[in-house]
């Protein structure tokens, strides 16, 4: 695949082509961990990195429904690559929500022209990175930041730190800036090729024009769409992984003999396997409908823009919380129960099929689903919508 091909094909077809390529090596790359440089470069060359960038900056200006669908398709094959790809688009949305066009125009144009990949070093819960002013328009970032998904092999880095007053400052800098060090210490059980380890900032100089100050993080209902977009990314990651596991189970059953005590010959005719697969399908269809509703609410809020009200933002939050709960439960259920359908042979280490469960189990711990239940339950009982935060 090359950029010329990418200008001809539909983005969803490009995502499907990439997914087919990634699927061929996903099991082995999961075992290896580390940085999937070759696969990231395929994404660069595909043209999909400009999908969410407005057309006035040279991008494709795609609807959120298309963007999330590409994430879902990639996650069916490789949720690590889907994760870093999705976060790239989250970070592009972040600058549009936290800054003004005059500031972010250059970054977006550069991204299109040079096929730049954005990396994440935001994590507002990790306060170890401090920001100290050293001149009227210059600051020093110092310290560590954890869970920096997609940071390794990125071109631009969205990073954050806290100043002496406790204010969160967010900046966009080149990933190669002097003093930025990626420690490569991500060795978790799932999402093993997301490079979600530590970034160390050693007296990193950040200029005033690189700080996202107007309107700044979560400063308005519209700006606070950022965490909702992040949550909806997780919905589509979980949905995609569950779909990938489901398809793997369905393909595995084809041609298998039924269990010896069954009254049928073929596994596809076994009533217990049929029941399991029906349950998988039912749960997936439910999540798809909830995800579609949530995407529509985000798209409408995005169209409204800075005039978005707190009430309108709250309605989006409720729709996404509902989809987040359902996608979490469904993905964990299917990736565990798929073995009940496939049988003992599916547990061989060569197939590495436990990666589906390990990936969603890891990513679903990003923020506790119990608090999504709490937010949704409070809304059901009192009508109170979730308060804006970096996680709701």
Automatic annotation (TrEMBL):
Residues 233-368 form the Acyl-CoA dehydrogenase C-terminal domain. Keywords: Oxidoreductase. One of its GO terms (biological process) is L-leucine catabolic process. It comes from the Bacteria. Pfam families: Acyl-CoA_dh_2, Acyl-CoA_dh_N. GO terms for molecular function: 3-methylbutanoyl-CoA dehydrogenase activity; flavin adenine dinucleotide binding. InterPro entries: Acyl-CoA_DH_C (IPR013107), Acyl-CoA_Oxase/DH_mid-dom_sf (IPR046373), AcylCo_DH-like_C (IPR036250), AcylCoA_DH/ox_N (IPR013786), AcylCoA_DH/ox_N_sf (IPR037069), AcylCoA_DH/oxidase_NM_dom_sf (IPR009100). Residues 16-113 form the Acyl-CoA dehydrogenase/oxidase N-terminal domain. This is Acyl-CoA dehydrogenase family protein.
